[in-house]
């Protein structure tokens, strides 16, 4: 089938997550068929998914969790009706995917934000950081967010305030307190090891043995700048009002699942509660500015 061809051709990305199906429980609401609800993700081995599956079954849901090896395929599969929903991406990634592929995928339930943080070996504060060279990820997904982390820390000044995805040309170097140096995301831990301050993605912290709790600053998950990085369950626009999918996605916020999410992220993830309307407003704003 087409999905198998996609999976065979897909390569693992460095970024940053059948037919219509129903819940077996009458409480799940209207749905399109009697099979399991299929959910796509890129990290099915995490403890959160095992907890989610257990809690969903307790609520009477019949589900299937399908893992993908790259970050584009779960959206392709969703758009083509191969799965019912997915949970692996933040709103900025979704906005860029929709805009680049002409799709109309929408968020229905927020899950969490994983803050992006600044680390400085053998330091526990921003004291003395002025004049330093700070390494940040150079990929399109994380560079703008990393710059905004430094803006929120008061270390970088932009020529224009409020940019969702600022680039290097947007930095007012004369007014900034540090120099920003983009490097491959995988090299940010190496910069940290050399004694340079570095903004490091969570996925690389674990590999480098860096404790996430040793960060000296992180973006505020409640700030407007962080809104594009809210993760969410996503569906096709035609399924945005399916009550079974909404109720299933809400299972993510049950305590056993949240405990597992916290364990997976070593306590760095921050739960987010937003209405579908609020999520859609953020998505549209990000799509307009992307």
TrEMBL record:
<dbReference type="GO" id="GO:0016020">
    <property type="term" value="C:membrane"/>
</dbReference>
<dbReference type="Pfam" id="PF03180">
    <property type="entry name" value="Lipoprotein_9"/>
</dbReference>
<protein>
    <submittedName>
        <fullName>Methionine ABC transporter substrate-binding protein</fullName>
    </submittedName>
</protein>
<keyword id="KW-0732">Signal</keyword>
<dbReference type="InterPro" id="IPR004872">
    <property type="entry name" value="Lipoprotein_NlpA"/>
</dbReference>
<feature type="signal peptide">
    <location>
        <begin position="1"/>
        <end position="21"/>
    </location>
</feature>
<comment type="similarity">
    <text>Belongs to the NlpA lipoprotein family.</text>
</comment>
<keyword id="KW-0564">Palmitate</keyword>
<keyword id="KW-0472">Membrane</keyword>
<keyword id="KW-0449">Lipoprotein</keyword>
